[in-house]
Amino acid sequence: MNQISLSNSAFEGDNNAYVFADGPETVLIDTGDQMASTREQLEAELAELDVELSDVDRILLTHWHGDHTGLAGDIQAESGASVHVHAADAPLVSGDEAAWEAMWQTQRELFASWGMPEAKQAALFDRMSYSDLSGTHPDVTPFEGGETFFVNGQELRVVHASGHAAGLCLFEFDQADRTEVFSGDALLPKYTPNVGGADVRVDRPLEKYIRALQAIAAADYDRAWPGHRDPIEDPTARAEEIIHHHEERAWRVLDVLRQQGSCDPWTVSAALFGELHDIHVLHGPGEAYAHLEHLEHADVVERVGTDYRIPDATRRELDALNEQRWDLGI
Questions:
Q1: Class for domain 2-96+131-239, per CATH?
Q2: 38, 51, 151, 176: least buried by Cβ within 10 Å?
Q3: Confidence of residue 309 (pLDDT cuts 50, 70, 90)
Q4: CATH 1.10.10.10: does it fit domain 248-320?
Q5: pLDDT-derived band of residue 53, with 50, 70 and 90 as boundaries?
Q6: Could you tell me which Gene3D superfamilies the record lists for this protein (predicted)?
Q7: Greatest C-alpha distance within the chain
């Protein structure tokens, strides 16, 4: 297996694609985005392995985001490769117009309820236009999670890890006496993957993501190969670090409500992250919303219209804490 680093049009740092070309099949995990420069990089890296795009037999996708799936349609058109992705993400990857329109409508409704200013909404939709229906979309073969793919004698076991995206999946495999995993954007070495904004279709995104992280920590993988940047040598520690990060963020969300009173997600986001630009306009209030929604379901905060407030019992509990960290109860 070879890791290929590709530039992207997002902010998380270079994308990773992974290629298996050491046997009768050529298989890719993720493809990078749809930019011509990305395709040129991918072709050049494959050429170092004496492989062309037309040689690709299968593409396994970790999730639907365009920086991971952008070239899948072009590669399939050139090679006839089959494209596999979780059933929850398959309609978006295949360019199903009804699925995209439903997601856009959910975004419009949520952005308004979050308190996002109309000018910011318009700029954000312009920014996200790279994910529209103008590119080449592949025919996809959906999977559900729990399957095993066999690639040149190597078993890749599918583990569904919803949260960042509805259909996000890991591919775990054994290497001698080690178990490693392709983690997509479920586990990254630097940034904490966004929840709430990255896929507005996900119900209870923070709870789902924390459970995915708990499962990663329990699996005790020996190494993770992420969707961005360098391999993670201690995936359990990194998963636990991100869980701790969200406990600290929950405390900060509650502290904003304690200090400012009733707030909508946009106001909480501004207090947490300041003025936002570019794709962060989606991710900031989305993450604030994910936390507020979770805290509401846990009866920690109350929702009044589009605003959230902390009841007296929560205020007393918050005041009594000795550390800036809130148990998420997951």
A1: alpha beta
A2: 176
A3: very high
A4: yes
A5: very high
A6: Ribonuclease Z/Hydroxyacylglutathione hydrolase-like
A7: 66
